[in-house]
Design a protein that fits this description.
With 262 residues, the chain is mainly α. The chain has one domain (2-261). It is 77% helix and 0% strand. It is globular and about 60 Å long. 41% of the residues are buried. The model has no long low-confidence stretch (mean pLDDT 84).
Length: 262
């Protein structure tokens, strides 16, 4: 218990460090908060006039869960770049020389990222409400949807920590950021997967972004419910997101802690 309290206290200190960096560089925070609002306007009003929703319904209501999933997935690349920057500047070596719990480093990165992600989701939700999106199943289901996003974001953050510790180069990490775009696009976030080629539809249906999008649509009561022939992750999206989160944590928590000790 003493070691656990020690690790928790060190982790909270590093959460404060990550949030403090945003206070010293407010432009980064402003850009992070503007991005969700711009996505709502760009996709909602540009794509909205050209794409039909399966079964009918407003495209912006269909779109918003996909945008929430896109912002959630941004955790992976955000934590990757910050961790790689710390590693390339010698910050990780400094942490290793200090009397602190090793687990505090990834805990600080992922914990701060979840808080930032919730703020981004709040901004996006506000923009969505102004654009006409509504959650229809009440406050409990709405909170459950956002909690599910936070859980997956936290798990993705650990994957980002490990990737950043492996890359250990800020420039390489920045070059990897565009690779996240195909992962979010090959999903049901923006368009139905039914019209995709068979092999691409398989990838899209089993993409965790698709599972989170389907879960959010289900909990918000938005259009886009999966058909009777939907793949398992889309037919049981909440369970799929929880399984994805558990699998990511089971894999990347021990890998990250091991990488920190090398």
């Amino acid at each position: 218990m003493t070691r656990l309290r020690w690790a928790l206290a060190d982790g909270l200190t590093l959460v404060g460090r990550e949030l403090g960096r945003l206070r010293r560089d407010p432009g980064e925070l402003v850009a992070a908060l503007l991005f969700p609002a711009v996505m709502v306007v760009l996709f909602g009003y540009v794509f909205g006039s050209a794409i039909g929703v399966p079964g009918g319904g407003d495209y912006r209501e269909y779109l918003m869960p996909g945008l929430f999933a896109m912002v959630t997935f941004s955790s992976l690349m955000g934590v990757l770049t910050r961790t790689a920057a710390d590693a390339s500047r010698g910050v990780m070596d400094r942490f290793r020389s200090m009397p602190m719990a090793r687990s505090a480093v990834p805990f600080g990165q992922t914990g701060a990222d979840v808080l930032i992600g919730l703020l981004m989701l709040a901004v996006m939700a506000g923009a969505g409400l102004l654009a006409g999106w509504r959650p229809h199943l009440g406050p409990v289901a709405t909170v459950q949807a956002f909690a599910l996003m936070a859980v997956l974001r936290y798990a993705l953050g650990w994957a980002g920590v490990y990737a950043g510790l492996v890359v250990r180069d800020e420039r390489v990490a920045d070059a990897l950021v565009p690779l996240a775009l195909p992962v979010t696009m090959v999903s049901n976030a923006f368009v139905p997967t039914g019209g995709m080629p068979g092999w691409l539809r398989l990838l899209a249906d089993w993409n965790p972004v698709s599972a989170l999008t389907a879960a959010a649509r289900e909990l918000f009561g938005n259009p886009g419910a999966p058909g009777p022939d939907a793949a398992w992750p889309l037919a049981h999206p909440v369970a799929a997101v929880l399984l994805w989160s558990a699998a990511l944590l089971a894999i990347f928590v021990p890998l990250s802690l091991r990488a920190l000790s090398l």
